[in-house]
Amino acid sequence: MEPALAVEGLGFSYPARANVLEDISFGVSAGEAVAVIGPSGAGKSTLFRIIAHLAAPAAGRIVLGGEDIYGASSRRRLRGAIGYVHQQHGLPVGIAASMAVLGGEMHRWSVWRLLTSALIGPGETDLARVSEVLCRVGLGGRESDRVGEMSVGQRQRVAVARTLLQAPRVIVADEPVASVDSATADVVLGLLAEEAARGAIVLCSVHDVGKARRHFPRIIGLDRGRLTFDGPREDLPDEVAAGVRDRDVA
């Protein structure tokens, strides 16, 4: 069976630098949660930015549901099918959590809907959807709280909720727990893994190999722009796991 998401021969480089990604290929099925590990500079963020339409590949292609996501006829349409969770939440701190969550899909709204929301506030249907997704990330009843008054971990959960509200087919999370404590990291990674159980494709870069093994059945390893491992977590070689730690310490 063909994978729902296929990365085929992906390559990318910056001027005056060696290849950041070189001939990266793998496929992911719908409902699959995959951790991507590798030392700093391995190419994880670049890979995720390309999948999320934030940087175009220099070689190869990415196919979602049989369509090239950078194809002329599908680029704009498929962009909305891919949700991106940043390493830093990147949310405006002066607005309520509900508006921060809704902000992730406002680019799809009509001008009339945007004006109405700005003048009299979001409609009951939108607020109900926001409340439901905030409950899913453990922030039920916090809709009116200002983002700036929340803890770092709570803000990151709002950022996850913002992505979940869009119901994307693919969720790309770039080190989403790098700035939170270990307990919150487990909560956030668990939430992302749950989305795979709902049918989404989940790709998440994780700095902690132990957490990658705990939350994701499949692991992909990158180092110096090349694929070093792709398989079940129980088959992850010790040298690949150790290489992540050794290179980061160095």
Describe the structure.
It is a single chain. With 250 residues, this protein is an alpha/beta fold. It folds into two domains: 164 residues, P-loop containing nucleotide triphosphate hydrolases (Rossmann fold, 3-Layer(aba) Sandwich), CATH 3.40.50; 81 residues, no CATH class. It contains nine helices and ten strands. Strands 6-7-8-3-9-10 form a six-stranded mixed β-sheet, with helices on both faces. Strands 2-1-4-5 form a four-stranded antiparallel β-sheet, with helices on one face. A hairpin with a 5-residue loop joins β1 and β2. α5 crosses α6 and α6 runs parallel beside α7. The longest helix has 16 residues.
In total, how many domains does the architecture comprise? 2
| Order of strands across the main sheet | 6-7-8-3-9-10
User: Radius of gyration from the CA trace?
Assistant: 18 Å
Report how far the terminal alpha carbons are from each other: 41 Å
The CATH homology group name of the largest domain: P-loop containing nucleotide triphosphate hydrolases
Q: Which structural class best describes the helix and strand composition?
A: alpha/beta
Range of strand content: 15-25%
Q: At CATH's second level, what is the architecture of the largest domain?
A: 3-Layer(aba) Sandwich
- Topology, number of strands: 10
User: What is the N-to-C order of secondary-structure elements (H for helix, E for strand)?
Assistant: EEEHEEHEHHHHEHEHEEH
Mean pLDDT equals 86
The main β sheet shows up as: 6 strands, mixed
Any low-confidence stretches, pLDDT <50, length ≥5?
A: none
Question: What's the CATH C level of the largest domain?
Answer: Alpha Beta
Kindly report the CATH topology of the largest domain.
Answer: Rossmann fold
Indicate the percent of residues in helices: 25-40%
Number of helices: 9
